[in-house]
Design goal:
Blueprint lengths: L9 E8 L1 H4 L7 H17 L4 E3 L1 H7 L10 E8 L5 E5 L14 H21 L1
Parallel strand pairs: 2-4
Antiparallel strand pairs: 1-3, 3-4
Length: about 120
């Protein structure tokens, strides 16, 4: 009988306390210390050295500058079968699909078509 292969992913939500750690750092270095503390917390709790923070989470941490990080942050951590931990801000929506870029030729044809349509409506009147 063949073995069933299942992906082992672990998904957890944490409310990470940061204040106790970043208060140990000088004021001009607090957000850096908070990011380091967040990574250390996730290494300890998710049992993996490879922790990757999302762009939205990083922007939330740095929103008020280097001197005033958030006291705590709620995150969603997902560990895949390779041991990589992807961390996202809890409740953050996934970015919408990228817009398809149009070429200059397509833009020109669209303009000429719209001009032709306007001329037809003015002639019909």
């Amino acid at each position: 009988m063949a073995k069933k292969t299942t992906e082992k992913t672990i998904e957890r939500t944490y409310n990470v306390p940061l204040r106790k750690e970043y208060m140990k750092a000088p004021r001009w270095n607090r957000t850096k210390k908070a990011v380091t503390a967040l990574r250390q917390f996730l290494v300890r709790h998710m049992k993996s050295e490879d922790v990757r923070l999302s762009k939205e989470l990083n922007e939330e941490m740095w929103k008020h500058g280097i001197k005033n990080p958030p006291h705590h942050v709620k995150v969603k951590a997902v560990k895949d079968e390779k041991g990589v931990v992807m961390v996202e801000l809890f409740g953050a929506e996934k970015p919408a699909s990228k817009k398809v870029k149009t070429t200059k030729k397509e833009k020109k044809t669209a303009k000429t078509e719209s001009k032709a349509a306007k001329e037809e409506t003015t002639q019909a009147e």
